[in-house]
Amino acid sequence: MNPLQRIAILTGLLLPLVGWPLTIDVEGRWLSGDGDGWIEIELVGDSLIGRIAGSPNDKPDDEPRFDDLNPDPALRDRPLKGMTIMTGFRYEGDGRWVGGRIYDPNSGKTYKGSIRQVDANTLKLRGYIGISLFGRTDTWTRDDE
Fold first, then answer.
1. Mean pLDDT across the stretch 77-91?
2. What is the average pLDDT across 53-70?
């Protein structure tokens, strides 16, 4: 094995240890910070979307929950499960997704947002109105089955 091959192999082995997240590593099921929602995140084209995949607190005989806090009365009867709550996030580099919108079904409000992948199993979501300074950060953990 020549020296260039050794360097290439060593670099390939060490890069994952540096902690650089892969852009597609955010795909999968995540548990929201309050522990009440599973969100399925997927890459569609070059942007992320997230849909409510259920709740760990749901029981098989529970009635479905609806978007009853939505400011649009016409949307209040749509079920939460399967609803898209994250759209438009584009990869900026260095584990950051920006330019998206996050809908909070617990308040019925939509916020501008950004996502930072801390590691393979942790996301920091920032929702804000206007500028990021006026917002809130939520930590989601990977919860793939």
1. 97
2. 92
Instruction: Tell me the domains of the chain and their CATH numbers.
Output: 21-142 (2.40.128.520)
Residue 85 structure tokens:
């709550």
Burial (CB < 10 A; 0-12, 13-18, 19+), residue 126, is middle
Question: Six-digit token pair at 15?
Answer: 């890069």
Pull the structure tokens for residue 100: 């998206």
pLDDT category, 23, cuts 50, 70, 90?
Answer: very low
The band of 130, judged by pLDDT with boundaries at 50, 70 and 90, is confident
